[in-house]
Design a protein that fits this description.
The complex is a heterotrimer of chains A (about 290), B (about 525) and C (about 325). By secondary structure, chain A is mostly helical. Helices cover about 75% and strands about 5% of the residues of chain A. The chains are: A mainly alpha (about 290), B alpha/beta (about 525), C mainly alpha (about 325).
């Protein structure tokens, strides 16, 4: 059993990492909540964000944090036509078709990234990426703290957007009852497109943070997809605060698993938690608005 | 055996804070047919769900044939002989009609020979009038056939107890007669039937015992004739029926009731009515026009040629039984469904097939059936939603006007949209429609599930709106109230206007009673 | 044999009736297909190694696709966990052969049973999930298994295990694949044209209504799940046998799931001919792009999306549809 300092630092890292995970999961949550879209390409959106930031840094010298919002914006802009072209035409054909379409997108993106950038592991180099920060017995990488703060801020912004703005009203109304919202004058298609863009931006920005804190390859997305799902299920679909809490919980538990079982089991712990959460939720999990 | 077939004891069903079924007990004797009646939203379907096994009671016991089945799943109960139909039919869409029955048959007799099973199912199909469509998919069945399929499928289980959930809705007189015949013939094959019905003729001719449910509670119980004759039951269930021969309130009395002494009130209301966009005297196209509109869902054709004109300032009522097509008509007007044929025009401009939000921006608002309040939004947020792209001051002003019209809403402005009573939610729905400053509002069945007192208040508000010049389309089940309010009336049957005219003329037309089986008589 | 259709001449011509389809598929299953299989078995010794390889791959993929079709197309259970059962089958075979000297022809069905056992174990948890949760749950299961196998050294960890016995020759493997495919075909025919099919489709169409008429959805879904996982396990075992070694990325990797899903969706879900047509298409494509694996996968993804959008019933569905008169029906 490793010594106390290491354990505590690990927990702290997990806590902080959880914030970043929450940001990533948030994108999935709002897509699912508003559009009933199971975005199986979510992980790839994250990785795309990481690659984008990587190249902004290497070609334009833009620091990943400085360019964070830029990456988010670019991703949002790219995501809009995606949604209009691929997902919107499938509205009303059940949940399986859009889900499989996103699965196809995930395959395409992964392999395009593979073709373009090869399977080499990359990491976004930033001075604070590995720099340690010590408070008492706790030592964490600076990037974790920065990442946590940034993530929580962004999650907070999304929360404000959803609860205080007219767009947020339309978003919540569309998710509750799309037909009624349309009859009340809401352009539901537009809301869906913007929601998807927002979700993609969140994933991409999370990807930048992940890419700076860790390394990534074209295949990294798959794991984060499932972790995100776990967080969404635990936190409640569309529940922003719940997602934040669940993300932090997931980060903590993953770190705990890594400490007890070994680092390779980190992701496995997350998945097992997911399966347990699914299995043990007493009422099963009913989603409003099925077929 | 003299023991009852089914005993329910103290059934309670709670959904969070809402009590859908409140301590209901009943006993069905063998060979009996019991009817359950009550206003919409009273909890009748919840009760059937509890008895059939689709829902688990929060409290209470159910004993069937001497056995406690409270903890049994729906499929276990089905195997023990409880067959149930759904209010909105749920056939297996991608299987043939015969296969729908075979599914029931095979769960009952898994090792029966294919030929025997087929023959048994065909016999049932014959009895239920579905023999000619045995090889067609469930998806291709129109609504009425689906209802028959529901019964046939339940019968394929060889049930001892049959639970029928509103099979009579949407049928005309002759079809009701057929249905009654079918139910009475089924009496010999099962040991007991419980019928939930709206169509009182079915209840009167088939049921010996009657149970009246209101707001989830058992309101009255007894022999059919007694219960039906009771005045209290009449008021509760039949809503506004004031007894035979009672005159409807003359318009001046209604105006007296409105507090027209408050000029602010009147001004508030008129400020919510959108511009008519027309000067009196100029020849104008109708505000809303439907020309030869056909519409439906998949294979089911519901609207079969609707011609409708609504002029500015007019109040038009659409009447008809369930299943006549009123809701589909509302959906077409709101844009939720595209017509399969025909045209829709607003101010003379063709808008056929326009999406709902575009129609809303042309000034058409709707108070949708079932209210459709957005639960995640507060009362005030619900109200603010339709006022899009409107200057903040304008929005605030409209909000004030709505609060003047419905002070209850102001009191509950920060509460969740669905946390209020049904009547208050209906006020919210109306207020929400008005926030867009519409030129035409369609009120779709606003009286469903509401007590008469609440309906009085709502209709008072509607009268005020009429005075202020709002163009209105009223789709209603409550004939009396609609006739009081409207200028012109159309009565729907089988997707067409079977009867049209001024409210005065229609009220006295004998054909109205013939076509319309809504309230008593 | 043909039943009468709607009598209104003005109605658009409908799809072949379910009865017609059933008769067509019975013809295929009882006559045409066995004849083809027999023919293949006979000429196999004369086929080139390349042909045998392609044939083997095709048969294996079709087997997996048929099993997936049973689950997803006929049962409505869209699973992304194919890889779990393939992997378990492969590892189980390796274990049985290495540790217990079990002969191949016994080990393969035993491996299938191992996969079915996994299915049984997770069934209670997994069937409580409806729709998307089931799908994502199966994906999580597959990935979790893979990660576990990578990390747990007891089963060889990331480098896997070697078969301690020499794998049989290509010809024997081909015949074995044919045999397994025959079994699969038989199972599918029984499952899709018997009364079980009616119960399964009822559960697929509306689980609650099915329960209300006495069907026990859990039992029905479980049977489909067990049969499918058994077949997938055997296919995995055969693959493991052929390669002579098993390791997590190859046997539990997502490519199994992706390939099978693509095959069935492109070919046509819920249709008997779907997996066959889909597999032919996918194998053809992969041979054409054999030198560019990433591109091949990317193109598969594109085709998947296009098919979902424009031909929801797959290639087979496209050919089945007769031209409809312009109706007013949306």
């Amino acid at each position: 059993m490793p010594n106390f300092d290491v354990v505590v630092s690990s927990m702290a890292s997990g806590f902080l990492l959880g914030g970043i995970l929450a940001l990533i999961a948030l994108g999935l949550s709002i897509s699912l909540g508003v559009m009933r879209l199971v975005n199986l390409a979510h992980g790839e959106l994250l990785v795309c964000g990481a690659y984008l930031s990587y190249f902004l840094l290497s070609h334009a010298g833009i620091d990943p944090l400085v360019g964070l919002l830029l990456v988010g914006a670019i991703m949002a802009v790219i995501a809009l036509p995606f949604q209009r072209l691929l997902i919107a035409p499938l509205a009303g054909k059940g949940m399986e078709a859009p889900m499989m379409t996103m699965f196809g997108v995930s395959i395409i993106l992964q392999n395009l990234l593979l073709l373009a950038f090869s399977a080499d592991t990359r990491a976004i180099e930033a001075p604070y990426a590995a720099r340690p920060l010590s408070i008492g017995p706790i030592t964490v990488s600076e990037i974790y703290v920065i990442g946590f703060v940034v993530s929580v801020l962004l999650v907070g912004c999304v929360h404000l957007l959803v609860t205080r703005t007219a767009f947020g009203r339309e978003l919540r109304a569309s998710s509750a009852d799309a037909t009624a919202a349309a009859v009340m004058g809401v352009d539901v298609k537009r809301v869906h497109a913007l929601t998807f863009a927002l979700g993609s931006a969140c994933a991409a920005m999370g990807g930048v943070l992940i890419g700076t804190a860790f390394s990534f390859t074209p295949g990294t997305g798959a794991t984060y997809l499932l972790i995100s799902f776990a967080i969404v299920v635990l936190g409640g679909i569309g529940n922003i605060f719940g997602t934040l809490m669940a993300g932090i919980a997931m980060g903590l538990l993953q770190s705990l698993g890594a400490v007890v079982l070994g680092d390779g089991y980190r992701d496995l712990v997350g998945l097992v938690l997911f399966l347990l959460a699914l299995a043990l939720r007493p009422q099963g999990i009913a989603m409003s608005g099925g077929r | 055996m003299n023991s009852p077939l089914l005993v329910a004891d103290g059934l309670v069903k709670r959904y969070g804070g809402v009590v859908a079924t409140d301590n209901v007990s009943l006993a069905l004797g063998r060979g009996q047919v019991m009817g359950i009646i009550g206003p919409n939203g009273a909890g009748k379907s919840t009760l059937i769900g509890l008895l059939g096994g689709a829902l688990t009671p929060s409290q209470g016991r159910i004993v069937f044939n001497g056995e406690d089945i409270t903890g049994l799943s729906a499929s276990d109960r089905a195997r023990r002989g409880i067959g149930r139909t759904y209010q909105i039919p749920r056939p297996f869409l991608d299987m043939t009609v015969r296969e729908n029955l075979l599914a029931a048959r095979f769960s009952l007799h898994p090792f029966e020979s294919g030929a025997k099973a087929r023959a048994a199912c065909d016999a049932i199909l014959e009895r239920c009038g579905l023999a000619d469509v045995a090889d067609l998919n469930g998806r291709d069945m129109p609504l009425l056939r689906r209802k028959r399929l529901e019964v046939a499928r339940a019968m394929a289980l060889e049930p001892r107890l049959l639970l029928l959930d509103e099979v009579g809705a949407g049928l005309v007189d002759s079809e009701v007669t057929e249905l009654i015949g079918l139910i009475q013939s089924l009496r010999h094959d099962v040991e007991g039937i419980i019928i939930i019905e709206h169509v009182l003729r079915v209840v009167r001719e088939c049921c010996e015992q009657l149970l009246v449910i209101n707001f989830g509670k058992k309101f009255a119980e007894g022999a059919t004739s007694e219960v039906m004759a009771s005045d209290e039951v009449a008021t509760v269930y039949l809503g506004t029926a004031r007894g035979d021969g009672a005159a409807t309130l003359p318009e001046d009395k209604i105006l007296d009731r409105l507090d027209m002494s408050k000029p602010a009130h009147a001004a508030a209301v008129s400020g919510l009515v959108g511009a008519r966009g027309v000067d009196a005297g100029t020849a104008v196209p109708p505000m809303l026009e439907l020309l030869g509109v056909h519409a439906g869902y998949g294979q089911a054709r519901v609207l079969n040629g609707i011609d409708l004109q609504v002029r500015p300032g007019q109040v038009v009522a659409i009447l008809g039984t369930n299943g006549a097509g009123k809701t589909t008509l509302s959906h077409v007007i709101s844009g939720a469904i595209r017509p399969t044929a025909g045209q829709m025009r607003v101010d003379g401009v063709d808008v056929t097939g326009a999406p709902p939000h575009q129609l809303a921006r042309l000034g058409l608002a709707q108070c949708m059936e079932g209210r459709r309040i957005f639960a995640p939004l507060t009362v005030e947020e619900n109200l603010l939603l339709p006022a899009r792209g409107v200057a903040a001051s304008d929005r605030a002003e409209r909000l004030e006007r709505v609060y003047t019209l419905f002070p209850d809403l102001q009191k509950m402005r920060s509460n969740g949209g669905t946390s209020m009573s049904g009547g208050q939610q209906q006020m919210l729905a109306i207020g929400r429609a008005l926030m867009a400053r519409p030129r035409l509002v369609l009120f779709d069945e606003i009286s469903l599930g509401l007590a008469p007192i609440m309906m009085d208040r709502l209709y008072e508000a509607l009268f005020e709106l009429r005075q202020a010049g709002l163009t209105m389309l009223i789709v209603e089940q409550d004939v009396e109230r609609a006739l009081e309010l409207a200028d012109d009336v159309h009565v729907m049957e089988h997707g067409r206007f079977a009867l049209s005219g001024t409210a005065k003329a229609i009220r006295d037309d004998p054909r109205l009673r013939h076509l319309y089986i809504g309230t008593a008589d | 044999m043909l039943t009468s259709q709607l009598s209104h001449p003005s109605h658009p011509e409908p799809l072949p009736s379910p009865l017609e389809l059933a008769n067509m598929s019975r013809f295929c299953a009882y006559l045409f297909l066995p004849a083809c299989l027999l023919a293949l078995a006979v000429i196999a010794p004369a086929m080139s190694d390349y042909a045998l390889e392609i044939g083997f791959r095709l048969l294996l993929l079709i087997t997996l696709a048929e099993a997936w079709n049973l689950l997803a197309g006929y049962g409505g259970l869209v699973s992304l966990g194919t890889a779990s059962f393939v992997g378990i089958g492969a590892y189980a075979l390796t274990g049985l052969v290495n540790q217990a000297d079990v002969p191949f022809f016994l080990a393969i069905p035993a491996a299938g049973l191992a996969a079915a056992l996994l299915a049984l174990t997770v069934s209670r948890a997994v069937f409580r999930l409806r729709g998307l949760y089931f799908t994502v749950g199966t994906l999580a299961l597959a990935e979790a298994l893979r990660m576990f196998m990578v990390n747990y050294s007891g089963f060889g960890g990331a480098s896997g295990l070697f078969l301690s016995v020499d794998p049989p020759g290509l010809l024997e493997l081909f015949w074995t694949a044919l045999a397994i495919f025959a079994v699969t075909s038989l199972a599918m025919t029984v499952a899709t044209s018997s009364r079980f099919s009616i119960l399964l489709r009822a559960v697929r169409d509306d689980e609650d209504a099915a329960a209300q008429i006495g069907v026990r959805p859990f039992r029905i879904k479980l049977i489909a799940f067990l049969v499918a996982s058994f077949l997938m396990g055997m296919a995995g075992a055969l693959q493991g046998l052929k390669v002579g070694a098993v390791e997590p990325y190859g046997m539990f990797g997502i490519q199994w799931t992706v390939n099978v899903l693509s095959i069935v969706i492109i070919g046509g879900q819920g249709l008997r001919a779907g997996p066959i047509v889909g597999a032919l298409f996918v194998v053809l494509l992969s041979e054409l792009l054999a030198d560019y694996p990433a591109l091949h996968l990317a193109i598969t993804g594109v085709i998947l999306i296009v098919v979902i959008r424009f031909a929801p019933k797959g290639l087979v569905g496209l050919f089945q549809r007769r031209p409809r008169a312009a109706g007013g029906v949306q």
